[in-house]
Amino acid sequence: MIRHRERDSGATLIGVIIALNFLAVLIGLVLWESGALSVLRDSGELKMRALLLAVNAMELLKTEKNPSSSLRREGDFLIQQSVEELGSSFLLLRVSVMKGDGQEILSLRTLKKQRVSSP
Amino acid sequence: MVRKFSHSGLSRSRGFLLLEVLISFVVGMLVICGVLSVFVWYAKFFLRTMRYLEQKEQALCAFHFAFHLARYGKDITITLNGRRLNLSLRNNRVALYPLNNSLLFAHKGTANPIAEGCTDALFSLSQGFLTLNFSFGEDGYALQVVPGYFRQ
Fold it and tell me: What is the ipTM of this complex?
């Protein structure tokens, strides 16, 4: 008789609390995952814009007769271009795109043949 | 004692009041609806993000393709108010233009899509640079290329 009554007594408070906690954990996981997705989305957009800026800067640098190192701001990005002599016949061109706080997003490097000026 | 015990048992298992049932039903429905709406919102957000990332991938593919066409192509001309890029690749005349949300590559009488979701494309030539402007939905991107750089 007592056992029968215990079975029919319904959900206890502790049972309800455990179920609600389980739901809260699931919802927390979903929100955490959506935060990660937002970061992924923003990172994709940032890297794509940075890549296009870097390619544009590199194209300009490659066409310059006397390329030189510089740092400039373009929108929210900082673009640093550096030119180093690599031996006597090559220049190492490097373009780095950084966030406004100076954190590098990506960089491109290429070699350019140095033009020897005619006497 | 026995009578007392059985009376107590009866009162415990007498069931819920209508008010209790209604309140618990409403609270249960609110919890279920809340949880379901969070899951539905997440599913939509996930699909939207995946579409967005796929669009970025398509845009990068389009730029990669157009960049190499411009690099290795020659005799570049732009027609249709800047919406069609024509150039020679080896001995073939090829073209790049947007149509019906796709960026098409025309070659030997056939046109194949190289990027889906490209809503518009504009090409311009100035000061030795070919500028490619591709729009993917609300996002627009621009890239500058030196045409035929390797032949210089």
Answer: 0.73
